[in-house]
Amino acid sequence: MTHEEHHAAKTLGIGKAIAVLTSGGDAQGMNAAVRAVVRVGIFTGARVFFVHEGYQGLVDGGDHIREATWESVSMMLQLGGTVIGSARCKDFREREGRLRAAHNLVKLGITNLCVIGGDGSLTGADTFRSEWSDLLSDLQKAGKITAEEATKSNYLNIVGLVGSIDNDFCGTDMTIGTDSALHRIIEIVDAITTTAQSHQRTFVLEVMGRHCGYLALVTSLSCGADWVFIPECPPDDDWEDHLCRRLSETRTRGSRLNIIIVAEGAIDRNGKPITSESIKDLVVKRLGYDTRVTVLGHVQRGGTPSAFDRILGSRMGVEAVMALLEATPDTPACVVSLSGNQAVRLPLMECVQVTKDVTKAMAERKFDEAMKLRGRSFMNNWEVYKLLAHIRPPVSKSGSHTVAVMNVGAPAAGMNAAVRSTVRIGLIQGNRVLVVHDGFEGLAKGQIEEAGWSYVGGWTGQGVPLLFLPLSLPPFPLRSLPSSPQAYTGGLELMEGRKQYDELCIPFVVIPATVSNNVPGSDFSVGADTALNTICMTCDRIKQSAAGTKRRVFIIETMGGYCGYLATMAGLAAGADAAYIFEEPFTIRDLQVNVEHLVQKMKTTVKRGLVLRNEKCNENYSTDFIFNLYSEEGKGIFDSRKNVLGHMQQGGSPTPFDRNFATKMGAKAMNWMSGKIKESYRNGRIFANTPDSGCVLGMRKRALVFQPVTELKEQTDFEHRIPKEQWWLKLRPILKILAKYEIDLDTSEHAHLEHISRKRSGEAPA
């Protein structure tokens, strides 16, 4: 990329003005998006304006539209809701209201509008854009604007960011706020589970989702619910009998509680609502169980945004500014979104149309079509839920094979969810499933026991791995599922061992599970999201403490081995001034620049600093060294403090993402295993000797893929235990720009406009 192109990003916005507004229902993470739009807009040389109170502020103008500064978005990142306010606006639905809005924008020279909201808000923005030239000619005729003003503002660019906790917008994998809403729901489910077990109760939980069952569906997967009711897929006509049979079977197997999740828009096949109260009445009448209803309501919209939503909001904000400033009068209005871990731009009205098609299909009772329109990711969630919740394991194990499951390496939250789904899918397929305690060592010593259905009951929410984890790695392996970089190395040793021992010629698969997110062949690993949220929460508290004392800089050490994923992503999510990592070598001059940057920052209204350091980023520039350097150089200007977060990053209850990701990985791995067993079964025994019979199951961009461990050797730096190429390194410039460094933003990484139909066929099953 040439220097000229680099320079272009910094001058792209000169002479332009951007307005940002949040509209419709609020969602956690909207503030992160607003902050990114403001800071990246200012970085490109543009003027950026807040529109307070959504479209109402656009119509009313005056003080509602105010210019933003760099400092005005400080400390916004960790706040829930929307700081600039949101309102439902009747005025904007009328042409008269839109005329007033256009007048306000023209007078301020604003021709770029970034709208953060749901499908209704985004449709309103598109209408506004299509009428723009007519509105201007009306204003000119009425003498409200001059011909010169009309020429200067001759077209309006619109970019949408979807902020909606329901995740009901088609074409986007995740909308801003969905992950945080799941955090709120799962916190409550975990709390309810403990009281339900004490009293042997059944709980019916109602979650938000009038036309979309995403929250209900992912919650049921994440907590191992007995049943879920969603609007897209109503239950069969005899569902009452089926539900009661299912609940009593769970109790017979030894469970002390039942959990039923209901989306607020749940309906039966005839379109009649299924309410949480009616389900409670049914259970009490038929089974006599002590049953309680909890309606979660607006709790789901509240609280602090999760790490994922902050990063999503920040990345989308950057992408929105680029899309606005690169737009021409012929570019269709677009939404910026994430697909897998890739930023994408999609035509706004195509997405709105498909979203409306889902509602229409449900109204016409074409439920299969509604499910398809929701996308492959939604369908995958549904299939895994049905497998785990509705299919009975066969009674006899005749002709079955034996499959073993074990954990390897350091603990990671979510491992138990993977073991649970692996064991249960294995049993459903008629296999005998063994669990190995203490990893490879336990296998060598015979610490193995058979697992039944209820053996893994209630495991999804458990943080500590319930199959103990040794950190040694003797070359003794098995037929199924380890996890972590040590498991990957163990997998390679297994392949080597096949040359000597026929017994090792069995299929095996590695599910990446490590807080460091450093397993080759996968963009994400189970446990990393939980660790990231733990770091974020701690940084929030530290920032609050710094805000109270003024002129204080905190240096925080994160885990990750040589992998800088946690430090970089936590830096983005917590608004750090710098994140030191091994993959991006730094010198004493870089440290000097960072200190100087903080000295300048102390002269502004934001008198605090946050610096993250990955534990192995540099053997000589240790946390103590950096702390001492900052303390010396900052004398009289700022105080320094240090925190080493340590093993708290491996603990805690797994996040909804880790539970759901692990559950699906376990199910997919066991399905793969069954296929491989059939392939390699001959003459009464299993013999698997091909490279593709030993794989890592990883998430790559938009899909879950199996990759032979031997093929991944080329992509691995074994000395430092990291993959040679890591996707998240491309996000580091965003971290620096949001911390006000004058650097080059590599625009070559930005997304191009895609079409929703094409995107749907390649969507990630996540």
From TrEMBL:
<dbReference type="GO" id="GO:0005737">
    <property type="term" value="C:cytoplasm"/>
</dbReference>
<dbReference type="InterPro" id="IPR009161">
    <property type="entry name" value="6-Pfructokinase_euk"/>
</dbReference>
<feature type="region of interest" description="N-terminal catalytic PFK domain 1">
    <location>
        <begin position="1"/>
        <end position="390"/>
    </location>
</feature>
<keyword id="KW-0963">Cytoplasm</keyword>
<keyword id="KW-0007">Acetylation</keyword>
<keyword id="KW-0460">Magnesium</keyword>
<feature type="binding site" description="in other chain">
    <location>
        <begin position="208"/>
        <end position="210"/>
    </location>
    <ligand>
        <name>substrate</name>
    </ligand>
</feature>
<feature type="active site" description="Proton acceptor">
    <location>
        <position position="166"/>
    </location>
</feature>
<keyword id="KW-0479">Metal-binding</keyword>
<feature type="domain" description="Phosphofructokinase">
    <location>
        <begin position="403"/>
        <end position="464"/>
    </location>
</feature>
<dbReference type="InterPro" id="IPR035966">
    <property type="entry name" value="PKF_sf"/>
</dbReference>
<keyword id="KW-0808">Transferase</keyword>
<feature type="domain" description="Phosphofructokinase">
    <location>
        <begin position="18"/>
        <end position="323"/>
    </location>
</feature>
<comment type="similarity">
    <text>Belongs to the phosphofructokinase type A (PFKA) family. ATP-dependent PFK group I subfamily. Eukaryotic two domain clade 'E' sub-subfamily.</text>
</comment>
<feature type="binding site">
    <location>
        <position position="641"/>
    </location>
    <ligand>
        <name>beta-D-fructose 2,6-bisphosphate</name>
    </ligand>
</feature>
<keyword id="KW-0021">Allosteric enzyme</keyword>
<keyword id="KW-0067">ATP-binding</keyword>
<comment type="similarity">
    <text>Belongs to the phosphofructokinase type A (PFKA) family. ATP-dependent PFK group I subfamily. Eukaryotic two domain clade "E" sub-subfamily.</text>
</comment>
<dbReference type="GO" id="GO:0005524">
    <property type="term" value="F:ATP binding"/>
</dbReference>
<feature type="binding site">
    <location>
        <position position="119"/>
    </location>
    <ligand>
        <name>Mg(2+)</name>
    </ligand>
</feature>
<dbReference type="InterPro" id="IPR022953">
    <property type="entry name" value="ATP_PFK"/>
</dbReference>
<comment type="subunit">
    <text>Homo- and heterotetramers.</text>
</comment>
<keyword id="KW-0418">Kinase</keyword>
<keyword id="KW-0324">Glycolysis</keyword>
<feature type="binding site" description="in other chain">
    <location>
        <begin position="647"/>
        <end position="650"/>
    </location>
    <ligand>
        <name>beta-D-fructose 2,6-bisphosphate</name>
    </ligand>
</feature>
<protein>
    <recommendedName>
        <fullName>ATP-dependent 6-phosphofructokinase</fullName>
        <ecNumber>2.7.1.11</ecNumber>
    </recommendedName>
</protein>
<dbReference type="InterPro" id="IPR000023">
    <property type="entry name" value="Phosphofructokinase_dom"/>
</dbReference>
<feature type="binding site">
    <location>
        <position position="292"/>
    </location>
    <ligand>
        <name>substrate</name>
    </ligand>
</feature>
<comment type="pathway">
    <text>Carbohydrate degradation; glycolysis; D-glyceraldehyde 3-phosphate and glycerone phosphate from D-glucose: step 3/4.</text>
</comment>
<feature type="binding site">
    <location>
        <position position="201"/>
    </location>
    <ligand>
        <name>substrate</name>
    </ligand>
</feature>
<dbReference type="InterPro" id="IPR015912">
    <property type="entry name" value="Phosphofructokinase_CS"/>
</dbReference>
<feature type="region of interest" description="C-terminal regulatory PFK domain 2">
    <location>
        <begin position="402"/>
        <end position="766"/>
    </location>
</feature>
<feature type="binding site" description="in other chain">
    <location>
        <begin position="514"/>
        <end position="518"/>
    </location>
    <ligand>
        <name>beta-D-fructose 2,6-bisphosphate</name>
    </ligand>
</feature>
<keyword id="KW-0547">Nucleotide-binding</keyword>
<feature type="binding site">
    <location>
        <position position="552"/>
    </location>
    <ligand>
        <name>beta-D-fructose 2,6-bisphosphate</name>
    </ligand>
</feature>
<dbReference type="GO" id="GO:0046872">
    <property type="term" value="F:metal ion binding"/>
</dbReference>
<keyword id="KW-0379">Hydroxylation</keyword>
<feature type="binding site" description="in other chain">
    <location>
        <begin position="164"/>
        <end position="166"/>
    </location>
    <ligand>
        <name>substrate</name>
    </ligand>
</feature>
<feature type="binding site" description="in other chain">
    <location>
        <begin position="298"/>
        <end position="301"/>
    </location>
    <ligand>
        <name>substrate</name>
    </ligand>
</feature>
<keyword id="KW-0325">Glycoprotein</keyword>
<dbReference type="Pfam" id="PF00365">
    <property type="entry name" value="PFK"/>
</dbReference>
<feature type="binding site" description="in other chain">
    <location>
        <position position="721"/>
    </location>
    <ligand>
        <name>beta-D-fructose 2,6-bisphosphate</name>
    </ligand>
</feature>
